[in-house]
Structure formats: C-alpha cells, structure tokens
Design brief:
Layout (H helix, E strand, L loop, with lengths): L1 H18 L6 H18 L5 H30 L2
Helix pairs in contact: 1-2
Length: 80
C-alpha cells in the first residue's frame, strides 16, 4: 500500500515537473527527474544490486560451511 502511495506521489511530481518544463532544457529535466526517482527509491526498503550480490555470496559461503560442519558432526557421531 505504501509503495502505491509513493509511486503515485512520484508520478504526480514527475507530471508536474514535465508540464511546467516548457522551456527547460532536456538535460535539466533529466537531472531533476533522476533526483526525484532517487529520492523515491531512498524511501523504499531496497538495496543496490552490488549489495544484493555481496550478501548472496556471503550466504552461499555460509551454506557451504554449514554443510561441511553437518557432515563433520555426522562423521563424529558415527565413531564409537
């Protein structure tokens, strides 16, 4: 629900920005729109692709270590 409200707000601000642009150069509109989108994304609970991939690699290493430890525990339990 919050995301819909946020995107509606961003959409209305973008429309207002584009409608009032009139004689504004395209580069200026582009930079203002980029700032508007970045501001909206900052309010959401998202991470960058780089952070996601880093956490994914950490999770993979952790899973591998856990599996190795589980195997080691199983081996130790088999010994008398």
């Amino acid at each position: 629900m919050l995301h819909k409200v946020l995107f509606d707000t961003v959409g209305s601000q973008a429309t207002r920005l584009l409608m009032s642009g009139g004689a504004r150069p395209t580069a200026e509109l582009e930079s203002q729109f980029k700032a508007l989108v970045q501001s909206a994304l900052a309010k959401l609970d998202v991470v960058s692709r780089e952070e996601f991939e880093t956490q994914q690699a950490v999770l993979l290493r952790t899973r591998e270590r856990l599996e190795a430890l589980e195997k080691r525990v199983a081996e130790l339990e088999q010994k008398p």
